[in-house]
């Protein structure tokens, strides 16, 4: 039962797309288990850059079955657009399947996402505006519409009319917006139903059958541990569970089928949207990381906030995900820094924390305690052997490894598949 989970250990955008694409070669199946089109995963192969949002990053390999698991929220309009864009680039989507249990993002979810953010003003989350939070909220409230509802337009009609009764009240009375018409939504979603129907299947059975046959299955996380609804920097999080436990719930497999958890970790830290970020550098260091690292959101085009490596955050991720190994990415981005810092602890009101603080206030106000290391001042983007890395770069990698307590097995020194060092 070779089930492998690959997830982000920080605030997302760690390079999960590259890692999944690179390791997927030996897999039979790649499964996304949570989130939706809020994700933006970049895969670069032979000078072609692909930006994936809802589709798993195994899609470039014709032999791989790609699965959108139960735990996702799906915007059918966006998904079809993404599929068509891949097909126009010569990439087949024939082996893409969608769980019937996925919840559908409806137009009112997107409207409510943006209007709620506007109303929150300075307290906004800085969401991607894709309707993710409102869709998961309806799922939990048990008034959601699922992919399997597309099979029966009568049921879809009933559920939609029921949902709209409440949504239209909220939109008109609370937010002064126009109501939505059930008929128009039915007409729109019936078109999507025709297009997607043949792909909507029992994906849990499909994945379990594959695992039972001994096929290698790769579970690809979106977002990152610090954006997890339970274990992240709540309320500045997304509305799903990117952590390793979420892979089981979000794809319908038991934990005993998983035998490895890979944590994808950026060599520094970034975050998109609002919320606490202890090691953020609003200065020339942060700006330099932003520029060299090309740190611009794949989904929203917002500049990512940047800062030094935070070992407390990644140690927390190591713990809640039981990481087997770390895939360290973007080490090349730090190549021109004379000195590089790593936060090894936080201080708050005279107390030192070398672990993730249990209370939100402490994390919000924590002052990082830094170690300072020498930079290596040379281009490492063509290096493929660990021993060939400059001494200072190896020291940086080994310091992170020691602080986090998880072996770093891979080091990425550039965006393409081949710019990777295996230790
Ligand atoms: P994801 O959301 O975790 O899949 O990450 P994104 O794709 O949103 O952001 C990571 C960005 O860094 C992408 O533009 C990748 O092409 C790029 N990238 C990945 N690994 C490396 C690396 O080792 N070095 C550099 N310079 N860029 C990388
Ligand atoms: P990938 O998979 C980085 C952030 C948003 C916002 C918060 C909530 O590319 O790593 P949402 O729209 O999910 O309700 O927004 O989560 N966010 C991400 N940040 N990478 C992502 O995905 C993200 N998906 C959501 O910026 O702060
Ligand atoms: Mg991303």
Itemize the secondary structure elements and their pairings.
Layout: E1 3-8, H1 16-24, E2 29-32, E3 41-45, E4 48-52, E5 65-68, E6 73-74, H2 76-88, E7 96-99, E8 103-104, H3 107-120, H4 132-140, H5 153-174, H6 182-196, E9 200-201, H7 203-213, E10 217-220, H8 244-249, E11 258-266, E12 269-271, H9 284-292, E13 305-307, E14 309-310, H10 311-321, E15 325-329, E16 339-348, E17 351-353, H11 360-365, E18 367-374, H12 391-404, E19 408-412, E20 420-422
Parallel strand pairs: 1-10, 1-11, 2-5, 2-10, 5-7, 6-8, 7-9, 11-15, 14-16, 15-19
Antiparallel strand pairs: 3-4, 12-13, 16-17, 16-18, 19-20
Helix pairs in contact: 3-4, 5-6
In short:
The protein has helices spanning 16-24, 76-88, 107-120, 132-140, 153-174, 182-196, 203-213, 244-249, 284-292, 311-321, 360-365, 391-404, and strands at residues 3-8, 29-32, 41-45, 48-52, 65-68, 73-74, 96-99, 103-104, 200-201, 217-220, 258-266, 269-271, 305-307, 309-310, 325-329, 339-348, 351-353, 367-374, 408-412, 420-422. It is of the alpha/beta class.
Task: Name a few traits of the molecule.
single chain; 423 residues; alpha/beta; Adenylosuccinate Synthetase, Chain A, domain 3; Adenylosuccinate Synthetase, subunit A, domain 2; 2 domains; 10-stranded mixed beta sheet; binds 6-O-phosphoryl inosine monophosphate; binds magnesium ion
Could you name the ranges where pLDDT drops below 50 across 5 or more consecutive residues? none
| Through-space gap between termini | 25 Å
Q: Per the principal axes of the C-alpha atoms, what is the gross shape? A: globular
The total strand number stands at: 20
Question: Helix count, per DSSP?
Answer: 12
What composes the largest sheet?
10 strands, mixed
CATH topological fold name of the largest domain: Adenylosuccinate Synthetase, Chain A, domain 3
Mean pLDDT: 96
Kindly provide the radius of gyration, computed on alpha-carbon positions and rounded to a whole number of angstroms. Answer: 22 Å
Name of the CATH class of the largest domain: Alpha Beta
Unique bound compounds: guanosine-5'-diphosphate, 6-O-phosphoryl inosine monophosphate, magnesium ion
Label the structural class: alpha/beta
Name the beta content range: 15-25%
Superfamily (CATH H level) name of the largest domain? Adenylosuccinate Synthetase, subunit A, domain 3
